[in-house]
TrEMBL record, chains A, B:
It comes from the Bacteria. This is Xaa-Pro dipeptidase. Residues 10-155 form the Creatinase N-terminal domain. It comes from Salinicoccus kekensis. Gene3D superfamilies: Creatinase/methionine aminopeptidase superfamily (3.90.230.10), Creatinase/prolidase N-terminal domain (3.40.350.10). Residues 163-371 form the Peptidase M24 domain. InterPro entries: Creatin/AminoP/Spt16_N, Creatinase/aminopeptidase-like, Creatinase_N, Pept_M24, Peptidase_M24B.
Amino acid sequence: MFSRKEYKTRLNRTKQGMLQHGVEVLVLSNPSNMCYITGYNAWSFYVHQAVIVFIDEKEPLWIGRGMDAKGAELTTWMKPENILHYPDDYVQSSIKHPFDFIAELLLEKGKGDRKIGVELDAFYYTGKCHERMLIGLPEAELKDTGRLVGWVRLIKSDKEISYMRKAAYIVEQAMQAAYDRIDVGVRENDVAAAIYNAQIYGSDTFGGDYPSIVPMLPTGEQTGSPHLTWTDQRYKKGDLVTIEIAGAYRRYNVPMARTVSLGKAEDRVLDVGKVVLEGIEETLAFIKPGHTAAEVSSVWTNVIAKYGYEKESRVGYSIGLSYPPDWGEHTISFRKNDNSILEPNMVFHFMPGMWYEDFGVSITESILVTETGIERLTSFNREIYEKEVE
Amino acid sequence: MFSRKEYKTRLNRTKQGMLQHGVEVLVLSNPSNMCYITGYNAWSFYVHQAVIVFIDEKEPLWIGRGMDAKGAELTTWMKPENILHYPDDYVQSSIKHPFDFIAELLLEKGKGDRKIGVELDAFYYTGKCHERMLIGLPEAELKDTGRLVGWVRLIKSDKEISYMRKAAYIVEQAMQAAYDRIDVGVRENDVAAAIYNAQIYGSDTFGGDYPSIVPMLPTGEQTGSPHLTWTDQRYKKGDLVTIEIAGAYRRYNVPMARTVSLGKAEDRVLDVGKVVLEGIEETLAFIKPGHTAAEVSSVWTNVIAKYGYEKESRVGYSIGLSYPPDWGEHTISFRKNDNSILEPNMVFHFMPGMWYEDFGVSITESILVTETGIERLTSFNREIYEKEVE
């Protein structure tokens, strides 16, 4: 939980964004944004819910399902009157919809003719949510305010950074648990279980939260595709495995990926690995406030091009507070044409995964932008780990 | 992985639903529905993707991000030509959108003037996805086909039921792990870690998959709200804890909730528990093919009313294949006005949680509807567990 002062700062920055977008009311649906503004923390985002910010009101509203309202009272900073809920027959009904309730509420509050911002592409703000808003608020002007709160979240407070340092500690432990457990004859799910145990145990002095993405552990030719999870197959000698996981502390996620070979790795894998390591060193040395995300991407592109390699996908993105299904913040990406300017206290997952037809190499770093450059949040050997096997 | 025959049956039933809805093309966005139709299994649903079914084509199309296409080739049954991907600069961009790509593709295939079904309220089909479809396909008639595939999923095949039996075994083990670990002085996250370990380990002969919802472990007054997860606080003597978790096997989820007291439970808790147990017995005894979901709900309501209790929220819902954020199928709910008729091989989570201002009792059963009644998928003592503590 953050101080009232910190929530007030977040809210004021959000209201400043609302002014820039020209909206008096902002309807948030992304659970990460809802939590960022109010503190609300529960796995209830499988039903529709919203946080509504009014430019002229001190406290936002939380609206969700009846059984979750108590959880909102317990986890948010607002007064209980600002926690509202819709009846249970609105849940997953083909007749009633929670956004009918929300539109009606805005009408009752006299906001039916206002400029209202919505997160049109946010997780859980479905086409139907927007349809019900359009139909329920015919006099309003609905505007897509996009990632407004995402941009506010970009620069972290000292307390947020302290949370991310704890998450970074956890991901180091979880990766070490994977390194220790993985072996010929061990099942993929048993490695996943060891990772989970470390992620949730955390440390002796603080506990882990659930990361926003489950362990991703593709093996063999599957390493050509990064988002496969695991099976109950047993590892064989010579298997290549990419491991992409996060540590999480109070919803702040710090990811890391490494590549493991059970026994000696193939030359083509080691060759890619060597180029990736050089690319990481040179790119991280370049990153500092004032440079753009596109410039960061181009340093990477130039290093690997020297060796004849190229990569189509982005090489990183901002991270922080998050809920499933993603630990990225969806604002800055390290890629061509992203001219966002880096500033101190932004945090990124530098993610230069290389994926081919039947193998891949993933080695990544989560980094904090400082006044003069970057600080790596984790300290974990980056080389391809060739585990000795029988 | 299911047989080609089973996927063909699923596809044909889906096409039958398309005929009923009057659409020639169906765009699926819910990852559970995408997997049900194609087998696609990866944690890639944090970027937009779709499976498209054409009423006059044998195989659906999968469309996603470039780095995920290989995973689609490896996990789906379709020919590689039916796996298509959009360029990476469509990912989380404020300029390009994956559904621009999808609309363009439909135009190129000559489907721009067709009746096209979309899952308007599906997870991950955002307002923006629908906007891009409307703008990109001005001659098409877009129709909300709602939970079309959800209704197909409702009746499980023998193989699906065999998967759910494995998931049921896993949730029993996970609940036992929680019972064993929870104690005065233990941290909430340590109980969560024990649950995870059992969930992912599975059994000696098959491994566990990740459940679609993380362990929910509210403690003390938090038990009045079911979807809170955990903290790193240590349990105290007298704490009441509700534990709602699932076991998962190859994406099939079987949930279970139980209520634990560290030491003697309060009378008000035991009183509710007693009524809940009687309500469960009587309601489960009533369930059989031919009865409606509303009738099931009313048996429950009548039992608890005898003791002066009432419950606003639904008392259960269909379950099966699922991805985060939900293990429910969003079709049948046990509640007033849901006149869906029960049939053999439907599977439900009977979930009569009772939540009050400062405490709650959750005791649930996952059940299979048989030819003559029901079979409980799990066998685990239902009583409130008053653990002996120091």
